[in-house]
Write a structure and sequence with these properties.
The structure holds two protein chains of two kinds.
Chain A: E1 11-14, H1 19-31, E2 35-39, E3 47-48, E4 51-54, H2 57-64, E5 68-71, H3 75-87, E6 92-95, H4 102-115, E7 119-121, E8 127-130, E9 135-138, E10 147-154, H5 158-169, E11 174-179, H6 190-199, E12 205-211, H7 216-227, E13 233-238, H8 262-271, E14 276-277, H9 283-286
Parallel strand pairs in A: 1-2, 1-5, 2-4, 5-6, 6-7, 10-11, 10-12, 12-13, 13-14
Antiparallel strand pairs in A: 3-4, 8-9, 8-11
Helix pairs in contact in A: 3-4, 7-8
Chain B: H1 5-14, E1 22-25, H2 28-38, E2 42-46, E3 59-62, H3 65-75, E4 79-80, E5 83-84, E6 88-92, E7 98-107, E8 112-118, H4 125-131, E9 136-140, H5 149-156, H6 163-182, E10 185-196, E11 199-202, E12 205-209, H7 218-221, H8 232-239, E13 243-246, E14 251-255, H9 258-270, E15 277-280, H10 287-298, E16 305-312, H11 317-330, E17 337-343, H12 346-355, E18 359-361, H13 364-373
Parallel strand pairs in B: 14-16, 16-17, 17-18
Antiparallel strand pairs in B: 1-6, 2-3, 2-6, 4-5, 7-8, 7-10, 8-9, 10-11, 10-12, 13-15
Helix pairs in contact in B: 2-3, 5-6, 10-11, 11-12
Classes of the chains: A alpha/beta, B alpha+beta.
Chain lengths: 289, 374
């Protein structure tokens, strides 16, 4: 068992003919991901890295049984690309694109919820990787991951790689690592991933990597306390020294009024009995698995 | 992007919401002329993008044109919470009977828009939510359906408003939702919505447009750099497409990725230092961007030493090293620098740095500990 992706994940790359789409298609193939098709409207008939390119997602679904999509298209076309995938019965969408308007993200998430049984990861995320099964639907560097039993959910990209590196070096490795995205509105959140990790016997412990902005960490802490979560969880929060009212790189990393401070998140986790690492290197020591 | 009050009110007016008679003055003489034209006592409102400007002395009531001219000369050029006042909204004073509140905002947890309304307007809404949550009506919008006047009327039914007030308040709220959609706003707020003998007026208005949606609103996109929200260095960084925030310490920080860069600031603090800035070069940055980043941070007078933290995934360490060396060579002032570099083409990057005499580390905490000493 695993979460979100497995051996049956057949991936279509939307925006495969762009620089990023092409580069990461090669990297995902190298890792072992089953990429069955690419889509760029008007460029059907080409091959990229040996992958056939079509004009529409529905062709990729009918001809190759694609059930998972990774989206690299520019922000202004992302919503329609994602809706095309949902309408073509794609069940998991990984939206890499940064800069999606919040209105587009809100409408997209609502659309997916209405259809039901659709997972959206992102936008503005590094994707998902499952090292034991050698499946990567994302943009993370392959070499830092190793098979193991730690589940990671994170709002950040490179900070996740930093922490992953520490986990790999401690000899633990990862079961699945999900980059939730740095935007204010994202699809899957900490609670959804915690629910999935709970049922996943390959995951023995969970690392949550949060940051300032919003209250997703506070809600996760409440969920862990209320459900008496059965697996050890460790948290890290970036932005202890961030000033209020300033966007710290991510569109979602902003303290507004009293909402979204690092101290509020750290306090919530501590209250729920979840250790919060002060430094990225402290995480493995706190993870009691 | 925050709009000025007068910009927000112009949008409201375009959508048929009544606003007090007003005009913009940039000098005391204009303030006098506008006040005469309005022909009633006016209020002078500093057009600055900070909240709490009233308490900070940025809003003043005057009795006649002569006083308006005098007060305008005091306000113009002064600083309200650190923001220089360059224009005033000169507005007729209203005979207010009741103050309402209405806003459209984004609820990140619910992943949708939330409509807020209250018949206790004119106060801080966050405070009201704490002290009397029952006095606020909330409605979470189903974005696939939208939000119309009947929804607003149902929402307001908990307040004991008469039929006319309910209908007119509901019409305004549903219009605010339409404005939020049309302008890609993350916040549209009218506080207070002032009820007078002749109907409701938006006495104050706030609109924040989603920065990510500015491409759909070119009329604001082009002016974004001219606003008072950024420090001069932040504005310069934006022109160079760098994600930069000024802080008040003395250690310059450059990182790749928002989370890693924030974690770097936090580590510097934990080790007893004070970051001078936040600068995220993003993923896969080319040599030119890194060079500009190094020059921008090094040139800040308060910066005593610079720490660069790169975790190469799609970012190549050798290109970063090349950019760092070029940036240092073109900077007029040389400051101590430490680079942490790990990941794609790490060995090549460290080699380039060593040849240029720059310290390079693979461990982030070692680099931070070192920069504090420099």
């Amino acid at each position: 068992m695993s979460i979100i992706v497995n051996e049956d994940s057949k991936v279509v790359v939307q925006g495969i003919t762009g620089n990023e789409g092409r580069f990461h298609t090669a990297s995902m193939l190298q890792y072992g991901t089953k990429i069955v098709a690419g889509v760029t409207p008007g460029k059907g008939g080409q091959q990229i890295e040996g992958v056939p390119v079509y004009d529409t997602v529905s062709e990729a679904v009918t001809k190759h049984g694609a059930n998972t999509s990774i989206i690299f298209v520019p922000a202004r076309f992302t919503q329609s690309a994602a809706i095309e995938a949902i309408d073509a019965d794609i069940k998991t969408l990984v939206v890499i694109t940064e800069g999606l308007p919040q209105r587009d993200a809100i409408e997209l998430v609502a659309r997916a919820n209405k259809k039901g049984d659709v997972n959206i990861i992102g936008p503005n995320c590094p994707g998902i990787i499952n090292p034991p099964r050698k499946i990567k639907i994302g943009i993370m560097p392959n070499h830092i991951f190793r098979p193991g039993s730690v589940g990671i959910a994170s709002r950040s990209g490179t900070l996740t790689y930093e922490i992953t590196w520490h986990i790999s070096h401690a000899g633990l490795g990862q079961s699945t690592c999900v980059g939730l995205g740095g935007d204010p509105i994202v699809g899957l959140d900490f609670i959804k991933i915690l629910e999935m990790f709970k049922e996943d016997e390959e995951t023995k412990g969970v690392v949550l990597i949060g940051e300032i902005g919003g209250n997703a960490e506070e809600m996760a802490a409440q969920y862990i306390a209320e459900t008496n979560y059965p697996k050890p969880v460790v948290a890290y929060i970036a932005g202890r020294s961030a000033p209020p009212g300033k966007r710290m790189g991510h569109a979602g990393a902003i303290i507004m009024g009293n909402t979204g401070t690092a101290s509020s998140k750290i306090e919530a986790f501590t209250k729920a009995g979840i250790p919060v690492a002060e430094k990225p290197s402290d995480i493995t020591g706190l993870l009691n698995i | 992007m925050k709009l000025f009050e007068f910009e927000a009110k112009k949008i409201l007016k375009d959508y048929g919401i009544r606003v007090p008679e007003s005009d913009i003055a940039t000098n005391p003489e204009e303030a006098e002329v506008i006040t005469r034209k309005i022909g009633r006592p006016v209020v002078l409102k500093s057009q600055v993008l900070v909240s709490g400007r009233g308490k900070a002395g940025g809003i003043r009531f005057t009795a006649d044109a002569a006083e308006a001219k005098q007060v305008a000369s005091e306000l113009l050029g002064s600083a309200i919470k650190g923001c220089r006042v360059t224009s005033l909204l000169i507005e007729e004073q209203l005979d207010v009977t009741v103050q309402f509140y209405a806003s459209i905002a984004i609820d990140r947890q619910a992943k949708t828009y939330v409509v807020l309304a209250s018949t206790n307007g004119g106060v801080d809404i966050e405070e009201l939510a704490q002290t009397s949550p029952g006095k606020i009506a909330r409605h979470w919008v189903d974005p696939t359906v939208g939000f119309g006047k009947p929804d607003a009327q149902a929402m307001l039914s908990r307040f004991s408003l008469n039929k006319n007030d309910n209908a007119s308040f509901a019409a305004i709220i549903s219009t605010l939702y339409k404005i939020a959609m049309d302008y890609d706003a993350e916040m549209v707020e009218v506080n207070p919505l002032a009820k007078t003998a002749s109907g409701e007026f938006a006495a104050d208005a706030r609109i924040i447009i989603d920065d990510n949606a500015l491409f759909r609103h070119p009329e604001f996109e082009s002016r974004e750099l001219e606003r008072g929200e950024d420090t001069p260095r932040e504005a310069e960084a934006k022109r160079q497409n760098l994600t930069y925030v000024d802080l008040d310490g003395d250690i310059g920080i450059i990182g790749n990725g928002a989370g890693l860069t924030m974690a770097t600031l936090d580590l510097v603090n934990i080790f007893g230092g004070k970051p001078a800035n936040f600068l995220d070069i993003g993923g896969g940055a080319p040599v030119e961007i890194i060079k500009q980043a190094v020059m921008l941070v090094t040139s800040k007078p308060e910066v005593k030493a610079v720490l660069i933290n790169i975790l190469g995934g799609i970012t190549r360490c050798d290109l970063v090293a090349q950019g760092v060396v070029e940036g240092l060579n073109e900077s007029t002032i040389r400051k101590p620098i430490a680079v942490r570099m790990m990941g794609t083409n790490e060995a090549e990057g460290i080699q380039i740095l060593h040849q240029a005499g720059v310290h390079a580390y693979t461990n982030m905490e070692e680099a931070v500990a070192e920069i504090i000493k420099l």
